Amino acid sequence: MDIHELVKKHEAYLLALRRHFHRHPELSHREFETAARIRAELEAMGLPYDAVGGTGTVAWLETGRPGKAMAFRADIDALPMNEEIDWEFRSQTSGVMHACGHDVHTATLLAAAKCLCEQKDALTGTVFFCFENAEEIAGGGAADMVEYLKSRGGVDRVISNHMAGAVAPFCGSARSGAANAGNCHWRVTVRGRGGHGSRPDEAVDPIRIACRILDRLTQIPSNYHDPFDPLVISPCVIRGGTAFNIIPDECVIEGNLRYFSVPALDQVLAQMDRIAGGIAESEGAEATVERISSCLPVVNDPAVSEKCREIMEKSGIRVETPELPAMASDDFAVFLAAFPGCYVNIGARSDRPDASPVPHNSRFFLDESGFLPITEFFVRCAVDFLGRA
């Protein structure tokens, strides 16, 4: 049986798993039932596994023949939002939704594992299947997974896919070099002096000062940073005050900073600190800037990326690599900083008029016809890299 027919044989299995995970989404570090189902499927395949980082799971297929090692990564967590699109397999958990395709990532990798178990005699070395927990939040499971793989001797290649909701099924990309931005979660805390809303002259209003700081911080990319080095600063949260007539003591701004130059991150954070501190001091207040967490840019190995493009074409996926990298981030960057590999994007855009192709949208929806090529791509990657000479 050729690879395409082998994968096609397990299409019903893939779709049933994806629909199950979509109906039962779980938040980061709380993926208890998701992890239990993943492990049950692995046990049914006869694959050993270890729990990594709590709800994360790493399984492996040992061929019994010496050779190289490779790993695949799928993330498993969902997002804290309600699903607004009505369909048979919509989320049954209020306030939680798979709005970024992680349900598909999990199902396609499990289906690939099932196929590769049947291809074991055609392989050498070892295949690791990494089901990463908590990718959606800072401090997720990537670092634990990488340390685990290192403890097992490391891998020679690592591959992951992300669903591309705006890209048509059977189309995809595998950029060489920088593919996705790094992401830094930052916080500015402004401390003033509270008072009565009727006498602002007797207080130091941190909300007003925070608004001044917010405006200046968003000017950094255009006024203080190299225009040929992409940078995004987005204040996404501002918190301050408890009542309409009370000037509070404190106001907090939080946001994200997307970047590609690692040295530039420290420089920009220092600039943010100077701006916030200077404005606050001029108003008789104090401001501190904190780096809450950060993840590296996603940088693909050029040789692995070229090979992935070849394999995508063999899997029936038309390669349409974009000219520019994406500003979205993914902690698969941690894997790529440790091992040579590639982060690909494969499309499954839906034509439903009530659906959105945008991840993290309450109407995010994917065309199921785009899922099977992902599993075929994974299987072909393993056979190509670990196949017997």
Task: Please give a structural write-up.
Strand 3, helix 4 and strand 4 form a beta-alpha-beta unit. This protein folds into two domains: 3-178 and 299-386, 3-Layer(aba) Sandwich (Aminopeptidase); 182-295, 2-Layer Sandwich (Alpha-Beta Plaits), CATH 3.30.70. The protein has eleven helices and 16 strands. The model has no long low-confidence stretch (mean pLDDT 95). The chain has an eight-stranded mixed sheet with strand order 1-2-4-3-5-16-6-15. The longest helix is centred in the last third of the chain and has 21 residues, at 262-282. The chain is of the alpha/beta class.
Q: Element order, helices and strands?
A: HHHEEEHEHEEEEEHHEEEHEEHEHEH
Q: What is the strand content?
A: 15-25%
Strand order of the largest sheet: 1-2-4-3-5-16-6-15
Corresponding CATH superfamily of the largest domain: Zn peptidases
Radius of gyration equals 23 Å
Our count of domains comes out at: 2
Q: Which regions have little confidence, pLDDT < 50, spanning 5+ residues?
A: none
User: How would you describe the shape?
Assistant: elongated
How many H/I helices? 11
> Remind me, CATH topology of the largest domain?
Aminopeptidase
Major sheet summary line: 8 strands, mixed
Could you report the average pLDDT, rounded to the nearest whole number? 95
At CATH level 2, the architecture of the largest domain is: 3-Layer(aba) Sandwich
Span between termini: 19 Å
Bin the helical content.
25-40%
Structural class: alpha/beta
Total strand segments: 16
Q: Which CATH class of the largest domain is shown?
A: Alpha Beta
